[in-house]
Backbone:
């Protein structure tokens, strides 16, 4: 019985950092859709130049797609999130909105408010 109590206490102490909520540090623009669309379009246009043209077209389209998406004001929302260990990651969130300093948690590739 004593071993079970000690094991339970140890597991709680080790896993407590996993239960802490992450914090939104700042909101950043996300142009992933523009980059993908631009790379695909550039690849198709560059195919006329052969394999090298495909690579050059995809690279140029990648950067052009991002710029065009920003230029027309259709950027999506992403958030920089700091976890309990101090690591910072960027998470896309096209539908949900969060405030800087809000406590959130990761569920799969999405963020959810900690109170939900």
Residues:
């Amino acid at each position: 019985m004593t071993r079970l109590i000690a094991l339970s206490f140890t597991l709680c102490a080790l896993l407590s950092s996993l239960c802490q909520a992450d914090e939104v540090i700042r909101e950043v623009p996300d142009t992933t859709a523009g980059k993908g669309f631009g790379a695909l379009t550039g690849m198709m246009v560059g195919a006329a130049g052969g394999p090298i043209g495909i690579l050059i077209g995809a690279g140029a389209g990648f950067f052009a797609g991002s710029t065009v998406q920003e230029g027309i004001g259709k950027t999506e929302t992403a958030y920089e999130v700091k976890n309990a260990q101090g690591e910072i990651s960027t998470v896309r969130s096209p539908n949900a909105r969060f405030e800087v300093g809000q406590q959130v948690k990761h569920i799969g590739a999405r963020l959810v408010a900690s109170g939900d």
Notes: The two ends are 36 Å apart (CA to CA). DSSP finds three helices and five strands in the chain.
